[in-house]
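Action item from last meeting closed. Structure (603 res):
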């Protein structure tokens, strides 16, 4: 902390603040003191261990600002940002003071601390680490791992309401984590059918198991909220549907994860038929094949009465060329789960719960895009297609047409390297609202993003592009309609404009900069091109390009990138986003990146 305090004092004492790189200078404001705390809002909860950031505005760049005596850095426009040690209490009180040579103002600000487990006594059990907790439906012939964190060297045993006692053993790589594997053990009264809607929440019926920890002469007991209902071997069949109410306001895709709470890994269209093999609270486990499982929202799995007639049979494949794409038609006896991945030379498509029977794969002239298609039985119930291409893929998408899976492969558009933007259709998405960050002087991210997007539209249009914005005012637009718009228009590119923020507990003085995000490999060159231009113009640290699980870049029909050019919470960067010069600087960076990407053929 000593280094930080010296750094902070030096910043506060500086007579003037120089903006990094090419950002426009922060305008000087010398009005009357008007002290505000923008983040964290009063009454909110901070999720940080011992230090975090606080920011707001003082009304005057001549002010000195302190929080409980700890200095904040103040910019010429009166915006301030502090990295401070937090009080130890769960209810944290800050006395925020702003002073000039002739005036002072004080405000008191209260926030809460998010409850965290901190080992206290020599014998402890972390009740926040119970895994699983709540309602569990599990096959009676499968192992259910039970884990918890507790004092190293303790003896742990789980006492069930029916009198059974099972010991937990420490994990060799982490002696504070204990585990036991249960098989065929039910806990408590049955908790309802596997796919009963709403059965994953509410009060647990009956008594809880008791976890007992012993170390030397010390003993402690805590209740473990857990109910386990065993499933027999009868398959539970379901159809995935994210819009069971028929509102039409969903993307008709159920996302799957490799583990509960993990990142998205599968995208299952409505109508996909699956076997549900287990459930923990609101998460259902799908058995995609004998060797693959995925987790989805249980609310999106609709139980079926009729059973599946064994593995789906995948038949012969036909490729049909069109002007800008090649379409592969893959027949299956019913809609099975699938996964598609880009490879360096094409597409790999895996169908789960399926066996292959393609007598032939037919394709003729395919617009110079398709090279060949091969298939193999990758496992007893998994069929895999390899689609090799003659040129880099611009985009792809899949859809079911009755019992046929349609894979559309998009050819790279013809681009004039001298006028690469001429005729190109580009969808520009000003990120948010809803949600979004807010800067120290109250600038909303949605407002900043729109300002940049409008300038970018002007630049692209002048260069011959056709531009569509996903919004032109502050009315909220949900994520999936933005992506759906770009897809329905057959846009050549999608670029979503954003500005960044940090989670609690991360020091913004050493953790800010520019970045660009993609999801699919084909968008990496566009992300790199835009990132290079932002770095050259802003002069901020390079946070790199990254694969991000973000809705606006998950579309596959075109290269798509989400930019995080500046940080809303850093005052000089917020000030740049308030100014026409700063908005134009950002827009010029994205424009140049798009132009360079297209001029290089989109490679």
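Sequence:
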């Amino acid at each position: 902390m000593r280094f930080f305090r010296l750094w902070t004092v030096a910043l506060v004492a500086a007579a003037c603040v120089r903006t990094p790189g090419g950002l426009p200078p922060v305008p000087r404001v010398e009005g009357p003191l008007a002290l505000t705390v923008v983040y964290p809002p009063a009454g909110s909860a901070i999720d940080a261990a011992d230090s975090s950031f606080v920011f707001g505005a003082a009304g005057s760049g001549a002010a000195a600002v302190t929080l409980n005596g700890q200095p904040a850095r103040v910019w010429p426009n009166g915006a301030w940002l502090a990295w401070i040690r937090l009080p130890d209490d769960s209810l944290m009180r800050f006395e925020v003071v702003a002073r000039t040579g002739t005036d002072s103002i004080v405000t008191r600000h209260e926030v809460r601390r998010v409850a965290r487990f901190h080992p206290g006594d020599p014998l402890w059990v972390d009740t926040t680490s119970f895994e699983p907790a709540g309602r569990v439906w599990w096959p009676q012939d499968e192992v259910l791992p039970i884990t918890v964190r507790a004092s190293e060297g303790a003896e742990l045993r789980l006492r069930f309401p029916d009198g059974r006692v099972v010991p937990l053993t420490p994990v060799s790589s982490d002696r504070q984590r204990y585990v036991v594997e249960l098989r065929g053990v039910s806990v408590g009264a049955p908790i309802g059918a596997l796919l009963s809607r709403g059965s994953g929440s509410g009060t647990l019926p009956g008594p809880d198991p008791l976890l007992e920890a012993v170390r030397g002469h010390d003993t402690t007991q805590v209740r473990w909220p857990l109910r386990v209902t065993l499933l027999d071997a009868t398959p539970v069949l379901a159809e995935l549907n994210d819009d069971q109410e028929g509102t039409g306001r969903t993307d008709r895709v159920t996302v799957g994860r490799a583990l509960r709470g993990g990142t998205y890994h599968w995208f299952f269209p409505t109508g996909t038929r699956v076997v549900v093999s287990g459930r923990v609270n609101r998460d259902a486990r799908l058995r995609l094949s004998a060797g693959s499982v995925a987790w989805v929202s249980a609310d999106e799995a609709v139980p079926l009465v009729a059973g599946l007639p064994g593995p789906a049979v995948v038949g012969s494949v036909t490729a049909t060329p069109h002007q800008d794409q090649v379409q592969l038609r893959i027949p299956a006896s019913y809609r099975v789960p699938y996964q598609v991945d880009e490879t360096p030379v094409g597409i790999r498509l895996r169908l789960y719960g399926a066996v292959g029977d393609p007598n032939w794969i037919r394709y003729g002239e395919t617009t110079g895009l398709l090279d060949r298609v091969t298939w193999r039985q990758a496992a007893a119930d998994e069929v895999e297609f390899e689609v090799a291409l003659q040129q880099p893929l611009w985009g792809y998408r899949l859809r079911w047409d009755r019992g046929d899976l349609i894979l559309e492969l998009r050819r790279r558009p013809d681009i004039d390297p001298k006028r690469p933007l001429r005729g190109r259709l580009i969808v520009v998405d000003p990120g948010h609202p809803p949600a979004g960050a807010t800067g120290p002087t109250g600038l909303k991210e949605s407002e900043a993003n729109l300002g940049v997007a409008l300038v970018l539209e002007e630049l692209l249009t002048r260069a011959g592009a056709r531009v569509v914005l996903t919004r032109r005012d502050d009315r909220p637009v949900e994520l999936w309609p933005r992506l759906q718009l770009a897809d329905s228009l057959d846009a050549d590119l999608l670029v979503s404009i954003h500005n960044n923020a940090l989670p609690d507990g991360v020091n913004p003085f050493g953790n800010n900069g520019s970045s660009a995000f993609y999801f699919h490999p084909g968008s990496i060159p566009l992300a790199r091109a835009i990132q290079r231009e932002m770095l050259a113009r802003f002069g901020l640290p390079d946070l790199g390009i990254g694969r991000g699980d973000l809705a606006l870049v998950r579309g596959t029909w075109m290269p798509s990138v989400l930019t995080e050019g500046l940080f809303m919470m850093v005052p000089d960067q917020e000030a740049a986003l308030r100014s026409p010069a700063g908005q134009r600087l950002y827009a010029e960076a994205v424009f140049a990146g798009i132009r360079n990407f297209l001029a290089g053929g989109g490679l």
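Note appended to the action item: The chain has five domains: 2-113, 125-229, 236-303, 312-410, 425-599.
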